[in-house]
C-alpha cells in the first residue's frame, strides 16, 4: 500500500483490555498512519492507561508512536473506573515483562494532539475510545484544531440500557458527560459507534482466541490471550454477549475506518442529558427525528454494522490483532 | 362471558383512545363502568366533546366525567395543541373525574381495572382525595411510557410528558401498575402498511375517530393503545415482567422519560476484599409490570377483526 494513502489517525484511549486490542489493530495496520496515542481515565486510572498504552505499542514494535498522558479526572463529576471489567491495572491479570517509557513525550494529551494535527498535511481521523475529556480540552484550548479533524469516530453512546454506566448512559459518556456534550455541540463531524449497534454485534468465542493466539508464539500472543480471557470472564459475569460469544468493543470501532463498506450510518441529532436524576449522562440519539431538527442540526452519524458482515468483521479484527495483513 | 372484567377508562380524547374505547365496548370480557377525560394534546373540554360524540356514534350509553384541565404541579406543557376549547357537552356527569371514579369504585362489588390512556393527573387526584376508594383499584393498565423512543419529544411519551410528576407518584403508589410502553407497542406495526390496513377496516370507525382530531395525526397513533387493552381479555398473548421504573423529572432533554431498569442493574458496590460487583435491583423496589413480549400477529388479527368490523350507528360524526 502506498504510504500516501494511509489514513492519518490519532487515538485517545483509556487502555484497558479492549483498547489494547484496538491499539494493536491500528498500530499494525499498513493502512493507518498512527500519529499519536493519548490516554485518559475510564477503564482504569490515567496513570495505568498511559503505561498500558506505551506497553501495548511496544508489544508490536511501534515505539515510534508518540504517547501523551491526558486528563486524570472528569471536568465536573467524580472519577469512576471499571476495575470489575478490566482488572485493577486495566489489563486483567496480565503483567508486562517490562515497562516501556521511551515514547512518552512529556506533553499533555491536548498539546500533543494539537501539534500532531497541525503537522499533518491532511485532516486527521480522531478515534475516541474513552470519555471525550481530552478531545474537548483540545478543542477548548485550540479552537483552530477543529479544521484539521476529518472526523471523530467515537466508541460510546447508546440508545438506551447499558449495564456498565447507568440505566441509559453508556460508560464512555457517563464517565464524563460534560465534555461529551461540548464536543457534540462543537460542529466536529462525529461518527458514533454505539455498543448495541456496532461493537456488541461483532462477537468472538473463547475458541476463536485459542485458535488464533493459543500457539503462544510471541509475547504478544500471550498478552492478548491472557487479557481477553480475563475480559471475557468478567463480561460474562455481567451478562454481555450472545450465549458464549463476547464482544471486544474498541477494535470494531477502528475497523470502521478500514472496512467502511461493512457499516452503514445515518445522520441524526444527538445531545447529552446533563441534568437528569435518572438519565444523567444519557446520549439522547434522536434516530427518528421526533424533535423535528432541521438538517443542519444533525450533528452525528449513527453507525450500524451490516448484518451479513458481522462474521467477516470478527475475522478481520482477529487478523488485525495478530498482525496478519 | 359470566364475569366480565370491570374497567374504567381514563383518556385524553386522542384517536387511539377512541379506538380503544370502541374495542372495550364491544368486548364481552370487558364491562366499561365509565369514562373520564383528561387534558392531553387537546384541552379537557375538547377531549370530553370528542369522547361523547364518539359514544353517540357508537350508540353506547356510558357515563363520561370530565377531569383535570392541567397537570398537578405546572401549567400545560408547551407541546400541546392550542385550540379553542370545545363547549362542555351536556351529557357529562356533574362530578369531577376523581369523585366520579371514587363513586364508581365504591359502588362496584368487585375490584375495578383502570385503563389509563392519558396523563395520570386524574388518578393522582383520586389517590389524594379518596385513598380508600383507590384501594379498590385492581390494577392500572397504562398504555404509554417510553424508554428509548418518545412520541412528543425524542425521549418522552406524551402521556407521561404532559404530567410526569403525576406519573411518578402513580407508579410509586403501591397500586399494581402495568405498562405497555411505546418502545414495545410501536414496533408492533413495523412492516405493516397501516394506512391500507385501517382503510380496509369496513366500519370506517377509525376515519370517524380521525375526523374528531383537531389536526391530522399519523395512522400509528390509532393502533397503539387498543393493542394494550387486548392484554385484559387475551392475557395469554402478552407477557409482563416485574421491573423498577422511575420517571425522569429533572432532565433538560429527557423530562418525562420512563426509565425502566431492564437489566435489574442498580449500580456497583464494593466487596470487603476491595473488588467491585454489580448490585441487583431489590425485589421490593420493583414497582411496575412492564410488557416485554407479545404475540404480534395474533394481536393484529384480533384488532383488525374486531375493531375493523365495527361501524357506528349514527350520530353527528
What's the gist of this structure?
The complex is a heterodimer of chains A (325) and B (317). Chain A has helices at residues 17-28, 46-59, 83-86, 109-119, 133-141, 171-174, 177-184, 206-213, 219-237, 249-258, 310-322; strands spanning 7-13, 32-39, 67-69, 104-108, 124-128, 149-155, 190-193, 203-204, 246-247, 263-272, 283-286, 300-305.
What's the topology here?
The complex is a heterodimer of chains A (325) and B (317).
Chain A: E1 7-13, H1 17-28, E2 32-39, H2 46-59, E3 67-69, H3 83-86, E4 104-108, H4 109-119, E5 124-128, H5 133-141, E6 149-155, H6 171-174, H7 177-184, E7 190-193, E8 203-204, H8 206-213, H9 219-237, E9 246-247, H10 249-258, E10 263-272, E11 283-286, E12 300-305, H11 310-322
Parallel strand pairs in A: 1-2, 1-5, 2-3, 3-4, 5-6, 6-7, 7-12
Antiparallel strand pairs in A: 8-9, 10-11, 10-12
Helix pairs in contact in A: 1-2, 1-9, 1-10, 1-11, 4-5, 5-7, 8-9
Chain B: E1 5-11, H1 15-26, E2 30-37, H2 44-58, E3 64-66, H3 97-107, E4 112-116, H4 121-129, H5 131-134, E5 137-142, H6 158-161, H7 164-171, E6 177-179, H8 182-186, H9 194-200, H10 205-211, H11 224-233, E7 238-243, E8 245-247, E9 258-260, E10 265-270, E11 276-280, E12 288-294, H12 296-308
Parallel strand pairs in B: 1-2, 1-4, 2-3, 4-5, 5-6, 6-12
Antiparallel strand pairs in B: 7-12, 8-9, 10-11
Helix pairs in contact in B: 1-10, 1-11, 3-4, 4-7
Descriptive overview:
The complex is a heterodimer of chains A (325) and B (317). Helices cover 34% and strands 19% of the residues of chain A. Chain A has 325 residues and is an alpha/beta fold. Chain A has a single domain, classed as Inosine-uridine Nucleoside N-ribohydrolase, Chain A (Alpha-Beta Complex), CATH 3.90.245. In chain B, helix 1 packs antiparallel against helix 10, helix 3 crosses helix 4 and helix 4 crosses helix 7. Chain B has 12 helices and 12 strands. In chain B, strand 10 and strand 11 form a beta hairpin. The longest helix of chain B has 15 residues. Chain B is of the alpha/beta class. Chain B has one domain: Ribonucleoside hydrolase-like (Inosine-uridine Nucleoside N-ribohydrolase, Chain A), CATH 3.90.245.10. The mean pLDDT of chain B is 85. At the A-B interface, strand 11 of A face strand 10 and strand 11 of B.
Amino acid at each position: 500500500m502506498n504510504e500516501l494513502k494511509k489514513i492519518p489517525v490519532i487515538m485517545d484511549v483509556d487502555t484497558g483490555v479492549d483498547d489494547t486490542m484496538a491499539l494493536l489493530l491500528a498500530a499494525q495496520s499498513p493502512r493507518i498512519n498512527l500519529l499519536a496515542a493519548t490516554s485518559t481515565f475510564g477503564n482504569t486510572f490515567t496513570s495505568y492507561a498511559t503505561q498500558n498504552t506505551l506497553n501495548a505499542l511496544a508489544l508490536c514494535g511501534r515505539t515510534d508512536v508518540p504517547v501523551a498522558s491526558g486528563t486524570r479526572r472528569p471536568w465536573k463529576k467524580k472519577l469512576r473506573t471499571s476495575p470489575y471489567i478490566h482488572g485493577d491495572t486495566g489489563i486483567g491479570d496480565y503483567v508486562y515483562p517490562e515497562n516501556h517509557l521511551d515514547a512518552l513525550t512529556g506533553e499533555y494529551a491536548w498539546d500533543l494532539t494539537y501539534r500532531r494535527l497541525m503537522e499533518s498535511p491532511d485532516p486527521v481521523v480522531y478515534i475516541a475510545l474513552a470519555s471525550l475529556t481530552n478531545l474537548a480540552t483540545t478543542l477548548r484550548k485550540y479552537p483552530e484544531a477543529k479544521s484539521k479533524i476529518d472526523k471523530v469516530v467515537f466508541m460510546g453512546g447508546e440508545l438506551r440500557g447499558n449495564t456498565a454506566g447507568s440505566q441509559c448512559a453508556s460508560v464512555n459518556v457517563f464517565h464524563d458527560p460534560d465534555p461529551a456534550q461540548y464536543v457534540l455541540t462543537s460542529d466536529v463531524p462525529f461518527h458514533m459507534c454505539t455498543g448495541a449497534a456496532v461493537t456488541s454485534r461483532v462477537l468472538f468465542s473463547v475458541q476463536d482466541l485459542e485458535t488464533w493466539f493459543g500457539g503462544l508464539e510471541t509475547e504478544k500472543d500471550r498478552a492478548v490471550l491472557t487479557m481477553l480471557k480475563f475480559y471475557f470472564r468478567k463480561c460474562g459475569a455481567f451478562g454481555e454477549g450472545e450465549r458464549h460469544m463476547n464482544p471486544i468493543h474498541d477494535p470494531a470501532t477502528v475497523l470502521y475506518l478500514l472496512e467502511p463498506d461493512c457499516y452503514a450510518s445515518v445522520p441524526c441529532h444527538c445531545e447529552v442529558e446533563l441534568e437528569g436524576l435518572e438519565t444523567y449522562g444519557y446520549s439522547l440519539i434522536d434516530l427518528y427525528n421526533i424533535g423535528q431538527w432541521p438538517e443542519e442540526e444533525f450533528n452525528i452519524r449513527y453507525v450500524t454494522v451490516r448484518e451479513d458482515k458481522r462474521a467477516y468483521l470478527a475475522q478481520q479484527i482477529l487478523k488485525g490483532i495478530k498482525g496478519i495483513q | 362471558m359470566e364475569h366480565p372484567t370491570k374497567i374504567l377508562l381514563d383518556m385524553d380524547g386522542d384517536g387511539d383512545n377512541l379506538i380503544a374505547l370502541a374495542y372495550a365496548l364491544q368486548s364481552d370480557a370487558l364491562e366499561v363502568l365509565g369514562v373520564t377525560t383528561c387534558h392531553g394534546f387537546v384541552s379537557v373540554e375538547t377531549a370530553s366533546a370528542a369522547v361523547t360524540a364518539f359514544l353517540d356514534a357508537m350508540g353506547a350509553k356510558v357515563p363520561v366525567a370530565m377531569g383535570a384541565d392541567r397537570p398537578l404541579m405546572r401549567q400545560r406543557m408547551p407541546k400541546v395543541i392550542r385550540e379553542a376549547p370545545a363547549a362542555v357537552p351536556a351529557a357529562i356527569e356533574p362530578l369531577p373525574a376523581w369523585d366520579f371514579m371514587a363513586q364508581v369504585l365504591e359502588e362496584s362489588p368487585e375490584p375495578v381495572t383502570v385503563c389509563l390512556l392519558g396523563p395520570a393527573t386524574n388518578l393522582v387526584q383520586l389517590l389524594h382525595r379518596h385513598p380508600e376508594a383507590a384501594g379498590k383499584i385492581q390494577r392500572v393498565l397504562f398504555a404509554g411510557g417510553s424508554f428509548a423512543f418518545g412520541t412528543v419529544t425524542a425521549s418522552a411519551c406524551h402521556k407521561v410528558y404532559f404530567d410526569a410528576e403525576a406519573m411518578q407518584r402513580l407508579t410509586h403508589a403501591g397500586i399494581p401498575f402495568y405498562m405497555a410502553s411505546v418502545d414495545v407497542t410501536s414496533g408492533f406495526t413495523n412492516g405493516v402498511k397501516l394506512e391500507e390496513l385501517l382503510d380496509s377496516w369496513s366500519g370506517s370507525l377509525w376515519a370517524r375517530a380521525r375526523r374528531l382530531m383537531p389536526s391530522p395525526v399519523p395512522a400509528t397513533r390509532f393502533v397503539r393503545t387498543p393493542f394494550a387493552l387486548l392484554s385484559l381479555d387475551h392475557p395469554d398473548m402478552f407477557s409482563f415482567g416485574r421491573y423498577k421504573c422511575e420517571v425522569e423529572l429533572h432532565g433538560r432533554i429527557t423530562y418525562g422519560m420512563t426509565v425502566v431498569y431492564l437489566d435489574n442493574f442498580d449500580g456497583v458496590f464494593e466487596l470487603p476484599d476491595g473488588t467491585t460487583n454489580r448490585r441487583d435491583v431489590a425485589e421490593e423496589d420493583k414497582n411496575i409490570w412492564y410488557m416485554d413480549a407479545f404475540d404480534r400477529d395474533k394481536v393484529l388479527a384480533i384488532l383488525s377483526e374486531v375493531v375493523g368490523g365495527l361501524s357506528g350507528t349514527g350520530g353527528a360524526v
